[in-house]
Amino acid sequence: MTAHSADARRLTRALSSLHGLAVGDALGSQFFVPAHHPALRNGELPPGRWNWTDDTEMACSVVAVLARQGRIDQDALALS
After folding, report:
1. What does residue 35 show for φ and ψ, rounded to 5 degrees?
2. What's this model's pTM, rounded to 2 decimal places?
3. Side-chain-facing half-sphere of 50: CA atoms under 13 Å
4. Could you give the CA distance from residue 67 to residue 60 in angstroms, rounded to a whole number?
5. pLDDT tens digits, residue range 21-61?
6. Of 21, 23, 43, 77, whose Cβ has the fewest other Cβ atoms within 10 Å?
7. What are phi and psi of 20, to 5 degrees?
8. Residue 7 — pLDDT band, cuts 50, 70, 90?
9. Rounded distance, CA 9 to CA 1, Å?
10. Which letter, b or e, does each residue of 14-27 get, where b requires 16 or more Cβ atoms within 10 Å of its Cβ?
């Protein structure tokens, strides 16, 4: 295995993790919408489009910096 293929596999795993994080984050954010509480109490999914939060946005920034630089650079992360 080459370093490039190992990096590509790590990035693929990171992106898969981001997908799961974004879905979970968007679902979790529905618990902060009082109008959705009845559906959630009944085990139903709320309607409409769910948006992720700043938690997912920050994770996307971390992965982007890691993909570009191979390490966490605080200055690059702050600009991301």
Report:
1. -65, -20
2. 0.79
3. 18
4. 10
5. 999 999 999 999 999 999 999 999 999 899 999 999 999 99
6. 43
7. -65, -40
8. confident
9. 10
10. beeebeebbeebee
